[in-house]
């Protein structure tokens, strides 16, 4: 990113601020200045000249020119093909030294004395790479719509075209991609030097309501990767197709080649200021106002394109195709503004094998909602060239990103983290020229964040911003101190270690999987309704873009991989944390079983994986946390994601609070991924730790013999087993335990949406041996309770 002193002077009073001070300020603010360039020192003397006569020298490509430099006329021999009369040109007089190292002397060329040099841009310090090929061998014509250049003949031309400038080349870190908009760096420097920004609000304000009915559809393949689509349009006055030299040189100093199209060049200037790219289209050249964003196979490359009636209008990141581009006769201009997932645009840049101002901004994480600012700035630039007849407001077709704009933090938290003693007034003063609004209620600070600062997503980010603005050099260094203390007892950790040992004892393998996944999978597998996902600003791949919202998908992917290498008898588990942007941290456990749960190769004995085996493991875990089993409910959910079996699944609740899920994978999904029967269970350990019963009660074992009774009932699938059981044993004495010992289904039961359960009840007492009469009396109570529920007893 390049910032120039002259550009800053348009908005800030820098009379008492040196270039070295600006350099120090930028570095202090965290913007590493890689290089500085004093353009004024590149050429000792350059003056403005006017070509009054230009004659071809016979039998040569040279021309003999009479050039007026105000106080006198010079005779200059020039070989450029475009030199001609009535041109304002850059002249290096005798004894001047120019950027290419040449010192001008009076000499004869083809027997004609040449008293100086008419200069091309690459001769006076402009990088040849930003000069159009056709212009590289031509002298430069000076133009300024607002100046009567004849009054400036013989004057320092560097001031007229902006070559008296001082450049700061800044290396931006990824989190400060917002500073690809030079307006952001302007605010940072204004805040650092405590300067008022002038001329910033001197903008166009006569916008009309936009009645253009434009539609832009998005192909399904890229729907999730298009964050923002907006557009505006202009009706233009007749216009010259020439940019002022000072603006043209400014583009070139920013390593941008001008396009020789005034409107396009002004859009590039706007992009430098706001970081929002513009796709400009001649509305009169569109046959239809129904456009489409899609991936198109173009020159054997799959490129993101804007199309109309199957014709490419714009390859995103490049200039509009000539068939639809604006020209000198364009009256109605469409301005489309997009914000696209950086990963997609990095792929686009790689395929295009190029880099330009638009692609540089598309591939970085920038505020997706810049369209209003960008449209205002572009309109103001157009209006400065008297081009605007009518300008219309922005219409937004898609807007998915919402800025996280408000954070609350106590002054103590900031000082505690940074090791400072800042007051509330001091903190407020650090942000006074930035687009932050800070209010406080006692010691609680509320920050309304600059919408462009999408890198600030937590309290820690805010503290880092305070440290940056306060300056790290002002934070006192304190030597590390080591304090010994008694290690506190951590019951939660002990239980987790016991849980880990229990699962390993059952033959499970402890796995560690990647915490990052795709944004689509994070949404799709969001079983626990986690909000405010953590998305990386610039992920290396779309496959590792978002912090996962559950552990299940990671373990299922591990199972799929193991099956692919013929490792099919699987028992896997993982304990890991789930996070979100609101400082949520949840400890989760997931375990998975696949294929046989027991296999003896000698006896060929096999035990098939099943739901109740996994449920038994789950309930052993609940027993470890000393939960009351009567408070646990398993609720089947038919409306599940396609990867989960619609019938063999349950959400698990304890005291009406969601604990987790247990389910079989959908057979279709298993078949597609060549998996055997696979069951998954994921639970929230933090909830278990909150709900666990810390009191372990030692119970006396009865010395008398227990007795059992079995009861088979037909129960509707719509009823919850725990509810039926609790009502069945209401006011029944001597029951020590109960469990389902058999489940039966046939076509008739399935047709009636019912199932047959056989429940075993165990009776015993501590004080005496129960008689058959006592047991039968209590069992009859169970039968009576069941009948009251209108449940069929088989």
Automatic annotation (TrEMBL):
Localization, UniProt: Cytoplasm
Reaction it catalyzes: tRNA(Phe) + L-phenylalanine + ATP = L-phenylalanyl-tRNA(Phe) + AMP + diphosphate + H(+)
EC number: 6.1.1.20
Matching SMART domains: B5, FDX-ACB
Protein biosynthesis in keyword set: yes
A molecular function (GO) term: phenylalanine-tRNA ligase activity
A single cellular component GO annotation: phenylalanine-tRNA ligase complex
BP terms from Gene Ontology: phenylalanyl-tRNA aminoacylation
Enzyme class: ligase
Keywords linked to the UniProt accession: Aminoacyl-tRNA synthetase, ATP-binding, Cytoplasm, Ligase, Magnesium, Metal-binding, Nucleotide-binding, Protein biosynthesis, RNA-binding, tRNA-binding
Cofactor (UniProt): Mg(2+)
Binding site for Mg(2+): 455, 461, 464-465
Limits of the B5 domain: 402-477
Subunit: Tetramer of two alpha and two beta subunits.
Similarity annotation: Belongs to the phenylalanyl-tRNA synthetase beta subunit family. Type 1 subfamily.
UniProt protein name: Phenylalanine--tRNA ligase beta subunit
